[in-house]
Amino acid sequence: MNLQFEFKRYRNTFALLLLFIGAVSTTAQAQRRSEEEIKKIQDAKVAIITNRLNLTPEQSTGFWPMYNEYSQQRREIHRAQRKIINDKKAEGQNDEAVLSNLKEVQELRQKELDLEKEYQSKFLKVITASQVIELYKAERTFNDMLIQRLKQKN
Predict the structure, then answer these.
(1) How far apart are CA 109 and CA 106, in angstroms?
(2) Which residues are the signal sequence here (predicted)?
(3) What's phi and psi for 69, nearest 5 deg?
(4) How far apart are CA 81 and CA 137, in angstroms?
């Protein structure tokens, strides 16, 4: 009888503990799945660029570390732009504050353009001008494909 009383007393705590463990497990699985999806997307991008550029082994050795560095810096700029646009809502702000946010976004766009110019000259030391054009086309093709896939998923 005493054991039954103890069970009833801790039943809610036990249920909450199980629920918490399940939530943590689900969150970890979702994070792993998300990381796997990002890896698949990155692998697909590499495959498209590799196919379109038709890199020689020597070009590949010089190109990929440089391109990865370029892509990382571009992602950071895009993240900063999204943060400004999403976090600093225009609602309730005066015109001066909104204009300041717009100026920040423009500065980041200029930073991205400067980055592209810098890396274009670096790329030209490793790959041909035709391959640089193909790189830009491959990136656009990849982005279009990714957008289409996301639309189909939703």
Answers:
(1) 5
(2) 1-30
(3) -65, -45
(4) 23
